[in-house]
Every structure is written in structure tokens, then in C-alpha cells.
Design goal:
Layout: E1 22-23, E2 31-37, H1 52-65, E3 68-74, E4 89-92, H2 94-99, E5 110-114, H3 119-137, H4 153-158, E6 161-164, H5 168-177, E7 182-184, E8 207-211, H6 221-230, E9 235-240, H7 245-250, H8 252-255, E10 262-266, H9 273-281, E11 284-287, H10 296-302, E12 307-310, E13 323-324, H11 330-341, H12 345-362, H13 365-387
Parallel strand pairs: 2-3, 2-4, 4-5, 5-6, 6-7, 8-9, 8-11, 9-10, 11-12, 12-13
Antiparallel strand pairs: 1-3
Domain Glycosyl transferase family: 197-350
Organism: Pedobacter steynii
GO molecular function: glycosyltransferase activity
Amino acid sequence: MGLRRIIKNRFGKHTDAKKEIINVYHTSHNRHVLISYIVYPFQSANQFTHQNYITAHIAAECFSALGYNVDVVDYMDQNLVIDYGKYSVIFGLGYNFEQSFYHPDRSIPRIHFVTGAHEDLHNKMSLASMEDFYQLSGLWLANEANVMKNICYYSNFSADLDIIFAHGLVLNDYRARVKNPVCSLNNNVLNAFEGFKPKSKEGRTSNFLFLSGAKLITKGLFILLEVARLRQDLNFYIVVQQMDESFERYYQDLLLQEGTNVRLYKNIRMDSEEMKGIVEACTYCVAPSYIDGLPGGTIEPMAGGLIPIVSKYCGLPAERFIFEMEGLSPEVLNETINQVLALDDDTYMEYSNAVKEYTRANFSGDHMKKELMSILTSELSGVLNYRK
């Protein structure tokens, strides 16, 4: 497979966000909205490492267009003093969204922004990933499981409206747990690969891409690496932000030796030449995740024409060109890989072109903004009337 390459971060991370309430547009409307989410998108340039940079701006732009002065706070900053009674709407997630429920004015609508699954399902599946990896390896790496330590109970069960990045099992599970309206919203992509030329029959390879951030056990990377050990006829490109040293050593036969069928890249920008070369080299993307919400690491390469293999816990919709695993194991992933490899060239081209067009049409920033505006316009008035 050639020399294994680990790409260090050449661009640097965004600076630590300031602990403050940010008034985004300095407008003078009669109404105010508080957004409890990430704040670095309003303080630094786009580093093209995560699609939530665009998501943050879309949320702020929608509320501004609806006539709200927009204040943004870091969702986990516990040092802020926030006058929740100032706001006509409170939107978001995390500690500062949860704290809003302790304000006595319950007539203020709370819109819970859910970027994954319901916390109960999320933690159940995160624990399952830890236990499965422990049974396999004998390693207990609790920090590599995406367990939420701080449960936001009011947010999960007392919000007036939930907007969730999910379809399928993840969406249905959430709706079954809460009494309030739940609206599905598509995630957005950075569109770093939208301009790529379509895949071709001649360029079809046996190369598979795993693209993700942190918490790699819950993301199911060990399932993929177990398959990589068995399938020396296939090539696997692993692109992650970072990797636990114990996990890396456990798979040193694949990750720390030259000439294997696995190439590991760490912390590279989605708009970099390295990343573009990886997407061009790969034909399929894989997300054997134990829990997710329309993961950007899957949707982003779909925009480049890569056919996805996903678990049902990723929250993707049912489409003929999205291959959903029946379970979470190396055996099931291997079977699903065989399904996509068995596609004839004409069907492969049909699916690759379809997934590219589908992602472009349904997961662009413009589409997400239009959908979020529609949800807020149609649902917010009902919530306001209900709370009067």
C-alpha cells in the first residue's frame, strides 16, 4: 500500500473562545433570541474541519431574518451570568440551555437543538461500544466512548420544540420519548468536495474512507479495523482528528507499520489538497457508528460521489444508494462491503451519481437554512401561542 502517512495539523486550531455573550449583528429589533451553541464561528475564520462552523451561522442568520437580535453563548460555559428573562426565544443545547429552565418565566419558548440522538439512547449505545471493544481487546478506554457525563433532563423532556439532525431509527426513537413536537433537519456540509468531477467506471477502486473526529470507539473504528485485518484485498483510508495511544498500539500492525492496507491521516482540513486526494482515491465511505446524527464525516464525502455504508444508528434516511448495516460487528460490515463490491459498474455509476446529487440538493448550507427557516416560521408561532 506504500508508505503510511500521518498528516499533522499544519493549519492550527481555532483559538479558545472568549467567555462572553456575543451580540452577533448589533441590530435594534424589539425581540431577542439567545443561542446556546458554539461561539468560535463568530470569533475566528473557518478552519474547514467541521461543518458546525456553518451550522452556527445558519442558526444566527435565520433568527436575525425573523426579526430577532441575536445573542450567542458557549453552550458549556458555566461562568456566564445570563438574564434569561430578556429573551423572547431560547434556542440551543448544553449547560446554558438547560439553565434557562431554572428561570421562573416558563412562557419563554425553549427550542432544543439536538445534534445527535436522545441522550438516553446516546449513552446506552456509547456504553455498548465500550463494552464491545473491551470484550475484543481487553482495553477499557472510557475517554474514547462518547458518553455524556452531564445529562440535560429539562432540555430532553421539557423543551417546547425539538429540532434534530436525524432520520430513521434515531428520529423515531426521539419522538417516542418526548411529548412535544420533533422536527427533523438535515445537517449541512462544508461542500469541500461538491465541485469534484463525477466518479467513473475506470476509476472505481476497492478503497474505503473512514472520516471522523474524536471518540473513535463509539464511532466504530475498531469494527472497521477488524475488517481491515481480514480483508488484505481492500484498502482503508482513516482520517481522524486524533487517536488514543493505547488504541493505536492495539492496532499497530495496521497503523504503525509500513506497507499495510491502512493509511492513517490525522487532523487535516477538509479543503486541503491531502483531503481532496483521499476523496478522489476512494470509492466508498464507511461509518459503523454506535450512535450519531447525520454525521458530517459521512455526508461530506457523499457529496464527492462516495457510496456510503452506515449503521442504522447514524440517523440517515432510507435510500437505495445508502447501504445500511444490519448490526454492529466486523462480520456484518464485511457482508455489507461485499454487497457494494458486487454492484455491477452501471449500477455503481448510477448510485455514485445519485448520492452526489442527493447530498448536493439536501445537505447544502442553503438547503439547511431554507428548511430551518421553514421550521421556525411554522412551529414558533404555535409554540408562542401555546405558552401565552
